[in-house]
Design a protein that fits this description.
Blueprint (H helix, E strand, L loop, with lengths): L2 H16 L25 H10 L1 H4 L14 H15 L10 H17 L5 H6 L7 H21 L11
């Protein structure tokens, strides 16, 4: 057996072995009791955009494509989902402090304005996640409406850091 054949056989062996390494899927069976909708309104058209472009990485329910079962893609996808949930999880939104909730809505506005979300790697494969300018504006207006609702309910100093 040549050196190339041994290396190829080793790589195939490693590829086969890593297929047995699985992450726990990001799928929550019960309804999310801390979802943003328990405190704030999400209009149906906004909800549809969130489902198409955001929830796979920013909720406790990811819809996995077939290739997510193949390592090392599964690891890469899981990393993106965990990272996304770390930054914003709509299913855990009401567990955040008020100031953090407000800041997350500010970040939604910023991410939409800067066209930083959804990630290019995600929207490349998920065509329904490619947001049109009208959809970005819809999300911006909704996030600003949530922020205004927060301002109406809570003292401003509980929402934003005082300027020093």
């Amino acid at each position: 057996m040549t050196t190339k054949s041994k290396i190829l056989a080793g790589l195939v062996g490693v590829f086969v072995l890593i297929q047995f390494y699985r992450h726990e899927p990001n799928v929550q069976e019960a309804p999310a009791k801390n979802h943003l909708t328990t405190e704030y309104t999400i209009p149906a058209n906004v909800e549809q955009v969130l489902v198409n472009a955001c929830y796979d990485c920013h909720s406790n329910n990811t819809v996995y494509p077939w290739y997510s079962q193949v390592q090392p893609l599964a690891y890469w996808i899981n990393h993106h989902v965990e990272d996304g949930k770390k930054h914003l999880n709509f299913d855990e939104f009401t567990t955040y402090r008020l100031r953090k909730q407000y800041h997350k809505m500010e970040e939604v506005v910023e991410q939409m304005q800067e066209k930083e979300m959804p990630l290019k790697s995600y929207s490349l494969i998920h065509s329904n996640a490619r947001l049109k300018d009208e959809e970005r504006t819809l999300l911006i207006n909704w996030a600003e409406a949530v922020m205004n609702e927060m301002k109406g309910r809570y003292p401003m100093d509980s929402l934003v850091k005082p300027k020093s």
